[in-house]
Amino acid sequence: MAQFQDNKKKESISNYNTFKVFQDIYGGEAGEENYWMIKPPVKKASLGFWASLFIFIFILSAVGFGIYPILSYILKTPYPLLVIAEDSMRPVIEKNDLILVRGVVNKEEIKPNDLVVYAQIVNDNQTLTVQRVVGVDKARGQMTVRSEAAEAVGTTIENKQVVGKVVGEDKPVKLSFIGKVVSYLAGK
Fold first, then answer.
1. What per-residue confidence (pLDDT) applies to 156?
2. Which of 53, 96, 142, 176 has the fewest CB atoms in 10 Å of its CB?
3. pTM for the complete prediction?
4. What residue ranges do the domains of the chain occupy?
5. Among residues 145, 162, 156, 155, which one has the least CA distance to residue 106?
6. CATH number of the domain at 79-186, please?
7. Where is the Peptidase S24/S26A/S26B/S26C domain (predicted)?
8. Strand pairing partners for 115?
9. pLDDT of residue 165
């Protein structure tokens, strides 16, 4: 009887279809290519993903477009960032450097050796110029400025022309790479 049971076991195992089990587990036909690979379900982008992306882009644009007004408020000047267009202030400030400018509330605080930004009319266009103060005439409300070039001659300007002072008198705060990018984008 024991031999009969062993034969019956062998018969049931030999009739067992392993390919059928494999197909049930992996969901493919034995003849198909890559039938053994388990493919993860593909998830479509949910509403949460798109909402997160929208919020990220909104914050990024608010920071990007909002930095100028924020700096304008903090530094108390309408021109907090300037890109230098000429090499007249070398070696202190190079061409295409982006500099920070702070407003001057009281013109009396301007003293010789300060780097000032002042407005002037050139060919019917208002331009901003950065130069070093070499003398101050408080009685007339004027100051003498010049560039860093060796042959530069001083120019007299009025105190009301001054827009601000460069942040960091001895070592100006400047961002060369960003200034070059801005200058390139402006086509200058």
1. 94
2. 53
3. 0.64
4. 1-42, 47-75, 79-186
5. 162
6. 2.10.109.10
7. 76-167
8. 132
9. 94
